[in-house]
Amino acid sequence: MSGTLVLVRHGQSEWNLKNLFTGWRDVGLTDQGTAEALAAGEKLKARGLKFDIAYTSALKRAQVTCQHILDVVGQSGLKTIRDQALNERDYGDLSGLNKDDARKKWGEEQVHIWRRSYDIAPPGGESLKDTGARVWPYYLHEVQPHVLRGETVLVAAHGNSLRALIMALDGKSGEEIVKLELGTGVPIVYRLNADSSVAKKEVLEG
């Protein structure tokens, strides 16, 4: 029995727009972010997708994106589970800083290492590897069983929590996954085989 897993990065947030490190800071969507979330819902509706359950993080930018999608597909009241296991990577001391200011403070090379290495964490924060260490067990225990029962599951989360998931689903290395860019509000639709391997992957861009 083949189930469906839909991953969506939240729409543009206020701090994405300002080029700030956001992490666990709880900021809302911009008007563009709202439009992106609604557009994601339209793309999924056009595919005739209906969800059995939804998962999102403890942060409102992902929660609001999730709700917009469910509203558009006509499932406003769907059971939605919120858990900080799906939160964005914690940027620690970088949180709230403008990325250009961080480069001035620590140097371009060091900030690039923190942003784009797999296992080096910024001061007080998490690496992508650390993020995966909480995302992947949560997925395995909570989310994947629904998909393997043939259900259709929505996960609305963040760039790095979704990267950690995609790394495992697609069998990518740490070096490969840090180069993956995830567009805001772009649904990624996975069809999984009964053994949890990926039968098909489709990115609903444009």
From TrEMBL:
Subunit structure, interactors included: Homodimer.
GO molecular function: phosphoglycerate mutase activity
Gene3D superfamilies: Phosphoglycerate mutase-like (3.40.50.1240)
EC number: 5.4.2.11
Pathways involved: Carbohydrate degradation; glycolysis; pyruvate from D-glyceraldehyde 3-phosphate: step 3/5
Highest classification ranks of the organism: Bacteria, Pseudomonadati, Pseudomonadota, Alphaproteobacteria, Hyphomicrobiales
PANTHER family: PHOSPHOGLYCERATE MUTASE
Catalysed reactions listed for this entry: (2R)-2-phosphoglycerate = (2R)-3-phosphoglycerate
Chain residues that bind substrate: 9-16, 22-23, 61, 88-91, 99, 115-116, 159-160
Domain of life: Bacteria
Coiled coil residues, start to end: none
Keywords from the named record: Gluconeogenesis, Glycolysis, Isomerase
List of catalytic residues: H10, E88
Enzyme class: isomerase
The protein, known as: 2,3-bisphosphoglycerate-dependent phosphoglycerate mutase
Keyword Phosphoprotein in record: no
Biological function: Catalyzes the interconversion of 2-phosphoglycerate and 3-phosphoglycerate.
Family: Belongs to the phosphoglycerate mutase family. BPG-dependent PGAM subfamily.
CDD domains tied to this protein: HP_PGM_like
Site (Transition state stabilizer): H158
